[in-house]
Write a structure and sequence with these properties.
The complex is a heterodimer of chains A (about 290) and B (about 325).
Chain A (H helix, E strand, L loop, with lengths): L1 H52 L1 H9 L7 H20 L6 E6 L6 H14 L3 E5 L4 H4 L1 H16 L9 E4 L8 H4 L3 E5 L5 H16 L10 H10 L8 E5 L17 E5 L7 H12 L8
Parallel strand pairs in A: 1-2, 1-5, 2-4, 3-4, 5-6
Helix pairs in contact in A: 1-3, 4-6
Chain B lengths: L10 H11 L6 E5 L3 H7 L4 H21 L4 E5 L10 H20 L1 H6 L2 E2 L11 H15 L7 H7 L10 E4 L18 E4 L9 H41 L3 E2 L5 H17 L13 H17 L16
Helix pairs in contact in B: 2-3, 3-4, 4-6, 7-9
Classes of the chains: A alpha/beta (about 290), B mainly alpha (about 325).
């Protein structure tokens, strides 16, 4: 009897896996079909949009016929940029800080770079990238190179407007990004989670011991300040999780108390529309904050 | 003479310390306490008295380190090479060690107050048996004073300390956030967000959630293993730093808030830290010193480099 149940359970799991495989195959097909249609539509509309929306840009092109950039490429990137920005404005609310949680083996740097560039292009100020093995942290420079490359490709020469500040842990720079309006990228690893909390606790103990503080001073807000001191960014309002694992996998336990979690099946070959979908869902989330 | 020196720094010392502390500070300092016998010769004292003064200086140095926030101090106490000294001298050093460790046991309360935790490294089998026993007692006695704040310790300080972390967290009504619930404890739990409203929750909803847990089980287990490995290597680093040293843990007032936690932590660590009597891996640095001593001994027979601090015998 037990053996029968065991077999049935395995069968159930197999069925679920088949179901998931079918869904993702179907989704991929749908996207490729949509993609071709979309490209044609955009190509048809692109030139007029560029001409109407960016008179300065057009003037520049006329004045500098020897400009390096191919005018067609310039128009395409300009069109993209304006579209993304208007998409961002169209949402009920946009997160100030978004977390990209990659719960998959062997991350694809290109896809993550795309996501980062899209997030910033729609107007999100802080983007955090995380994986539970610290792969992004270890390959920080590779990720940054990829992002710069994608920035160039997707946003063109004017992509420098979205000057990205790369923050990895341990940076003691004081960020004035609020004033400079520069999008900020943070590359996080499990060390930024519980380990940071442990270190903050150690610091508090030491300061009490050195009579810089009394033990009564230790409070939630104090710990919060400490955990924020070196990070200096708001809590992530939205975390988009990529991959089938239903867990935060150690992502910033302290900072996620009010974070919305939206899951996408995978970050590989993720599309801009996938991201938009997640942002739209976030837009309709309502927080009552205990009321 | 006591292990613990009370007293603040004088004004000039305080100012100098504060100036130094404005820059990067070492967290762990090691000393090769050399020159006891030359000192004795200079002052026309017995060698033994020189070693005694050496110990006093150690105690005073520990006080300074405490004021400079140097959390960890390692001292080079005795080398296997030192056994080559005259029987008289070696016996004298062993006797000094006996006295100091006995004193340590008497001063237990004071050490606890200052959060002093002592660990002894080396091949202690080469020491006289009674000294080994004393050391073992001293180490075990002060072991409870080790109160490194760590992830397991913080877990034990939470309200949920009597329970293991949740394996599965379910939220109904379609909201996809944690709302400040068990953020620490669920870092590696399976999260299932279901759209059904709680009053309408059914058995099938629960089965669905459990199925989700089962589908995720392997990958979450793997992630937990990764996390455990990360935690273990962090703990190993912390242990290695303190394991190979006199561990001076400056607690002071903070102890009042974390004293219970500190005890729990040490109990948890007790399994990891073996009794002093067992042979422990040596640090590379002390290895060099014996050679130097050998050379010096060759020169003039009694100009050995290090201070054999009997209170921290490190026979290799």
């Amino acid at each position: 009897m037990a053996l029968l149940y065991s077999l049935l359970w395995r069968l159930l799991l197999v069925l679920v896996h088949i179901n998931r495989a079918l869904v993702s195959w179907f989704r991929a097909r749908l996207r490729s079909w949509k993609g071709r249609l979309w490209e044609r539509a955009v190509a048809a509309l692109l030139l007029p949009v560029a001409l109407a929306g960016f008179p300065d840009h057009q003037k520049k092109l006329i004045q500098n016929p020897n400009a390096n950039a191919n005018p067609v490429t310039e128009n395409r990137t300009a069109g993209r940029r304006s579209r993304w920005l208007s998409d961002g404005r169209s949402f009920e609310k946009l997160p100030v800080h978004i977390g990209l949680l990659v719960a998959e083996e062997e991350p694809s740097y290109t896809d993550i770079a795309n996501l980062v560039v899209w997030c910033m292009a729609v107007g999100i100020s802080y983007v955090s990238v995380y994986d539970n093995q610290g792969i992004f942290r270890k390959n920080n420079s590779r990720l940054m190179e990829e992002i710069v490359r994608q920035q160039q490709d997707l946003l063109g020469a004017d992509g420098s407007k979205y000057n990205v500040e790369f923050l990895s842990n341990g940076s003691d720079q004081h960020q004035h990004h609020v004033l400079s309006c520069r999008p900020t990228l943070k590359v996080l690893s499990p060390e930024d989670g519980k380990q940071s909390i442990v270190q903050a606790a150690q610091q508090l103990c030491r300061s009490v011991e050195n009579k810089e503080r009394s033990s009564k001073d230790i409070s939630v807000s104090m710990l919060d300040t400490m955990l924020r001191e070196s990070k200096n960014t708001p809590d992530p309002e939205l975390v988009v999780k990529f991959g089938p694992v239903n867990s935060t996998l150690g992502f910033l336990p302290w900072h996620i108390r009010l974070t919305e979690f939206i899951s996408l099946p995978s970050h590989r070959n993720v599309s801009y529309e996938d991201l938009l979908g997640a942002l739209q869902r976030f837009g309709v989330c309502q927080q009552r904050l205990g009321q | 003479m006591s292990w613990i020196r009370e007293g603040e720094l004088n004004l000039l010392e305080k100012i100098s310390a504060n100036i130094l502390k404005a820059g990067p500070m070492p967290k762990h300092v090691a000393f090769i306490m050399d020159g006891n016998r030359r000192f004795a010769r200079k002052k026309n004292m017995e060698r033994q008295e020189g070693h005694m003064q050496g110990f006093n200086k150690l105690a005073e140095t520990l006080r300074w380190c405490k004021h400079l926030n140097i959390q960890e101090v390692t001292v080079y106490a005795f080398s296997i090479e030192n056994f080559k000294r005259t029987k008289n001298e070696v016996d004298g050093l062993m006797e000094l060690a006996r006295q100091k460790f006995e004193k340590l046991l008497e001063e237990r309360d004071n050490l606890e107050k200052h959060g002093v935790c002592i660990r002894v490294l080396g091949d202690l089998n080469m020491l006289p048996l009674d000294l080994q026993q004393l050391i073992a007692k001293a180490v075990l006695t002060t072991k409870a004073h080790n109160n490194d704040v760590s992830e397991p310790l913080l877990s034990e300080c939470l309200y949920s300390s009597n329970s293991p972390n949740p394996d599965l967290l379910i939220r109904t009504s379609g909201e996809v956030r944690l709302s400040d619930f068990l953020l620490w404890q669920t870092s590696h739990s399976c999260l299932v967000f279901q759209s059904v409203l709680w009053p309408e929750y059914s058995f099938w909803n629960l089965c669905d959630a459990i199925l989700q847990y089962q589908l995720n089980h392997k990958s979450i287990q793997k992630a937990r293993d990764v996390h455990r490995e990360q935690q273990a290597s962090q703990q190993l680093e912390a242990d290695r730093a303190s394991f190979c040293s006199f561990h001076i843990n400056n607690m002071g007032k903070a102890k009042n808030t974390a004293s219970n936690a500190g005890t729990r932590s040490s109990e948890r660590l007790a399994g990891r830290h073996k009794p002093a009597a067992e042979p422990i891996k040596k640090k590379p640095a002390p290895k060099k010193a014996p050679k130097a001593k050998k050379a010096k001994a060759a020169e003039n027979g009694n100009n050995k480099a290090e201070e054999p601090k009997a209170e921290a015998t490190e026979a290799k």
